[in-house]
Design goal:
By secondary structure, the protein is of the alpha/beta class. The protein contains 15 helices and 10 strands. Helix 6 runs antiparallel to helix 7, helix 10 runs antiparallel to helix 11 and helix 11 packs across helix 14. The N terminus is likely disordered. The structure holds guanosine-5'-triphosphate and magnesium ion.
Length: about 475
Amino acid sequence: MIIGNIADRIVRGVETVQEGVNEALFEPVIRVGITGLSRAGKTVFITSLVANLLDRGRMPQLGASSAITAAYLQPQPDDTVPRFDYETHLAALTAPVPHWPDSTRAVSELRLSFKVQPTGILGMVSGPRTIHLDILDYPGEWLLDLGLMEKSYSEWSESTISAAKSRDQSAEFLTHLDAIDAHAKHDEQQAKSLAQSFTTYLKAAREAGYSDCSPGRFLLPGEMEGSPVLTFAPLPSSEAKRGTLAREFERRYEAYKREVVKPFFRDHFAKIDRQVVLVDALGAIHAGPKAVEDLRRTLSDILGAFRPGRVGRLLALLGQRRVDRVLFAASKADHIHHSQHPRLTAIMEALVRDARDRADFAGATTSAMSIAALRATVEETIDHNGETLDCVRGRTSDGKQAAFYPGELPQDPSHILTPARKGAEKWLDGDYEIMRFEPARLTLKPVEGPPHIRLDRAAEFLIGDKL
Ligand SMILES: Nc1nc2c(ncn2[C@@H]2O[C@H](COP(=O)(O)OP(=O)(O)OP(=O)(O)O)[C@@H](O)[C@H]2O)c(=O)[nH]1
Ligand SMILES: [Mg+2]
């Protein structure tokens, strides 16, 4: 067995049955996971989604809107998970001089509850029902760690060192590694400095666009920074005796799997019913073909976590419910004119096609969309030397308004994906610009949430059928 012990399975089993009974009889819970690589737009997405579900004036595509008689925030069920700081993030977006919320680095959760009046015959005989929506924000990087569960320390060391040897960023770490005697007595200073070289290499590799840079917490340590579970590195393998550095690193690697990776999958991932994967495709296109190819590979690795054969084996043991809907959303679509949105969606679909074909998501329904959780721009068509250009206008960081022409995305996504796969240095068809707009100043009517693009469709896909 790869994961878990029997006691664990039994406890989860009982919990699942209990939850199942509660939900069927009383108050159903929908658990939606929101993930994506860092800066993909998770925090803004959740903040705007919640604000727009509380005040549904801008949610015409959410069919069940009219059946919702009340929506309110409630204490979340998990006492040990930080609460998603909705109020602070919303305050940032709706301040007199609005600004984007700060970066978040760990998992957080929020519970939104609805009172729903059933329609039709059921509605005549029954009163309103309560339905809970538990939203979980977690870094996509963490899903990459799943691969570690299948590897022993020596297997992991071997593959990690061999990958490092093919990358320019590893020179210092490899020199350091050469100078280390893995079979000498464990010395904490030495352990720490080798782990530091390894972490520095991982970060540099990540920055250079490599996707396979696990353990994920080495890049996003959060409150575990400096702890022994994050103080190890790969070592050339051979029998390790007690008290040696190699034995200690092996122990810490196993601890990382047991104390960091497994709890995340067991306590969070395994409980998700529906998943949003946010992707900053425009940002990657702007950065160039290499960034697009890296994004495609990383997404494919991340989505491997949903592959039934793989995680299925692991999670079946943990009593996982099946993720039955996955939404792939290209975020920040307000950077381009709406006439370009179908092209962005097509690129999004192409980016995840491989992963989708391989994973098949265990029969889950998937959908791709272009969205903007918070619309920061308005559209404008301007004449430029006799040509009409579809622009977007927004507030720049110096407080001024600027109109901006981002260039045109190709009709055929392969014009993006193929050069990316072939390792092209830059785009042939011209450049795709992007401009960082600040959030627009808002004056909201009482029944309205912040302006968005297709957030209501996203909500309909994610929870519409359950309301
Ligand atoms: N124009 C526009 N920009 C957005 C939108 N959503 C996110 N952004 C931009 O993307 C940045 C990152 O958004 P976040 O929601 O903080 O992303 P995140 O995935 O939570 O990032 P981390 O917490 O750092 O992992 C923001 O600071 C904005 O600059 C959107 O709907 N429209
Ligand atoms: Mg965030």
